[in-house]
Amino acid sequence: MKSKVCVLDIDMQGVRQVKNTDLNPWSIFIKPPSLESLKQRLTDRKTETEESLNKRLSRAEEEIKYGTTPGNFNAVIVNDDLDRAYNELKEFVVDKVLKNKVS
């Protein structure tokens, strides 16, 4: 039987709900390098109004605080370099998840 990994892209409430199940999930918080860099990324896309940008940044600030609080996630990966972040994610999944999976 092949091991499979389910990947969810969920908000803080979703993380709390999944952690309160019998699934024993592994969780990784993908963190922007800074709020300033996140603001720049969102601004460069030219898809946000000033109001929606401010809402997203406010929510991101809360998520960063939650995501970097010890015990809330098994790992935190800073998304400042795509290749490095991808390799960290892959390493985590292989080393922590797949190798610890019950057969």
TrEMBL record:
<dbReference type="Pfam" id="PF00625">
    <property type="entry name" value="Guanylate_kin"/>
</dbReference>
<dbReference type="InterPro" id="IPR008145">
    <property type="entry name" value="GK/Ca_channel_bsu"/>
</dbReference>
<keyword id="KW-0418">Kinase</keyword>
<dbReference type="InterPro" id="IPR027417">
    <property type="entry name" value="P-loop_NTPase"/>
</dbReference>
<dbReference type="InterPro" id="IPR008144">
    <property type="entry name" value="Guanylate_kin-like_dom"/>
</dbReference>
<dbReference type="GO" id="GO:0005829">
    <property type="term" value="C:cytosol"/>
</dbReference>
<comment type="similarity">
    <text>Belongs to the guanylate kinase family.</text>
</comment>
<protein>
    <recommendedName>
        <fullName>Guanylate kinase-like domain-containing protein</fullName>
    </recommendedName>
</protein>
<feature type="domain" description="Guanylate kinase-like">
    <location>
        <begin position="1"/>
        <end position="94"/>
    </location>
</feature>
<keyword id="KW-0808">Transferase</keyword>
<dbReference type="GO" id="GO:0004385">
    <property type="term" value="F:GMP kinase activity"/>
</dbReference>
